[in-house]
């Protein structure tokens, strides 16, 4: 058997067995001469006696064992005694089952923790016995944690290798002892005269779902997870936020990215509740006649490496459109519930990105809390040229009104039907709605349905042939409705004097442009407009009720 130079293992040509050179073998099996290798030292752990050679005890030293027996050998040598009779048994009141694995480690075997309880016991005793090699090995092992009732092994490097934003998290903070350095263990604990180490509870998270965590762990390893439905997505997002996996959360939020060939740019669709301040940016795009024109862009923190044009989705029926006498040229948006506060915050962030100063003029975002002047405004007001947010109904926008496609050309026909001076007829022939003068107590010539001659009353199955009757009832405003008994009447008139739409769900682009009618009190020359991309709107309460569903399907 021969060995090649430079310590490279040589191959026995006859038997085809690789062997290690003498120098390499010495480096691998070298044990420092701390205790006599051939001598046996007795150690009693609890009720069980262990006898380990000096070579085994010296293999992971200096330790509690090596220091104890070195002192005995030195005392015997100073007293001229025989070391074999002078060495006393070391007794330690610890768990003998755990020490069996530690003795295997001292004898040269690799010991791997079986579960979370086994890990913390090895961890605590390795610290107590001051075994440097075993502590170093345990710091490289996966962390054993029980989620719900299921044990998991979490690689230590998984959070740093899974991408930015996933650390610090619940595990690195809540179980910092297992993710720290050996020198930082038990901070503030005085180890001098320590009889036994403090009790360590096995890592356990009993109040979370093991199935959900298994999928999150799968994603942290770099594998995709198929989202089965919206409920499944919300379960993943809920635990992502609980564990503080911010990078993973941004990958899971509902979004859609793509390249818009018509506009020649990349865009991202996101819900308002998922917008984060750090992802907002403004891309200047000056055009002829408007050097201040720009579009709001967005990049998901920790997930996107470049910003894309933002298409903002707002649902929950929290948007109301006010259409003025000018039709599609005079449309404003008003927001309700907590969506209003979130839109106000969004405008503040955009104004900050534009370096706009704060103003004291109240904005239309505060109208639902008492009207003008109900609250002091902030920098968001610099983006509002009027009380409400300006809306642009783009000709390319996809708009559905009351379940039917709607185009911008219909706005002049549907937004403001003309009303006669003295009264307006409703859909029922022969019925007249009194004018303001007649309803105030003056004489009225309005007929009620009961005063109609029965012989002339049309049949409910007879189709009206009146040329003045609108053939499309969707385009006629109902004026004969009154609130039911016990319900307080709420004014539904638009501040602009025209139609109102309830937007169930809308997708908008955010455009920065020069204000066409700058407010001298604000001294603002720019405003943020909502450019419609896709809208699902309702024109009345009746249409809203028609789209309701019953509980249980």
Task: Write a concise keyword list for the protein shown above.
553 residues; alpha+beta; Potassium Channel Kv1.1, Chain A; 12-stranded mixed sheet; 3-stranded mixed sheet; 22 strands; Potassium channel tetramerisation-type BTB domain-containing protein; SKP1/BTB/POZ_sf
The coarse overall form would be elongated
Which spans of ≥5 residues are poorly predicted at pLDDT below 50?
Answer: 1-28, 360-382, 412-491
Helix/sheet category: alpha+beta
Number of helices: 17
Per DSSP, what share of the residues sits in E-state strands of 2 or more residues? 15-25%
State the end-to-end distance: 82 Å
Query: Percent range for helical residues?
Result: 25-40%
Arithmetic mean of pLDDT:
76
Number of strands: 22
Radius of gyration computed on alpha carbons: 39 Å
Main sheet properties = 12 strands, mixed
Region (Disordered): 401-498
Biased composition (Low complexity): 422-449
InterPro entries: SKP1/BTB/POZ_sf
Protein name: Potassium channel tetramerisation-type BTB domain-containing protein
Describe, in plain words, how this protein is organized in 3D.
By secondary structure, this protein is of the alpha+beta class. Among the domains are: 23-190 and 198-205, Potassium Channel Kv1.1, Chain A (2-Layer Sandwich); 255-401 and 498-544, no CATH class. 25% of the residues lie in helices and 22% in strands. It has 17 helices and 22 strands. The protein has helices at 22-29, 54-58, 64-79, 83-86, 96-106, 116-128, 132-138, 158-161, 170-174, 176-179, 210-220, 230-243, 246-252, 337-353, 411-414, 436-439, 541-546, and strands at residues 10-12, 17-19, 40-45, 48-53, 90-92, 143-147, 150-154, 204-205, 255-260, 265-271, 280-284, 294-298, 308-314, 319-323, 331-335, 389-392, 398-401, 404-406, 423-425, 432-434, 499-514, 526-538. Strands 9, 10, 11, 12, 13, 14, 15, 16, 17, 18, 21 and 22 form a 12-stranded mixed sheet that branches. Strands 4-3-5 form a 3-stranded mixed sheet. Strands 7-6-8 form a 3-stranded mixed sheet, sandwiched between helices. β1 and β2 form a beta hairpin. The longest helix is centred in the middle third of the chain and has 17 residues, at 337-353. Residues 401-498 are annotated as: Disordered. Residues 450-469 have a biased composition (Polar residues). Residues 422-449 have a biased composition (Low complexity).
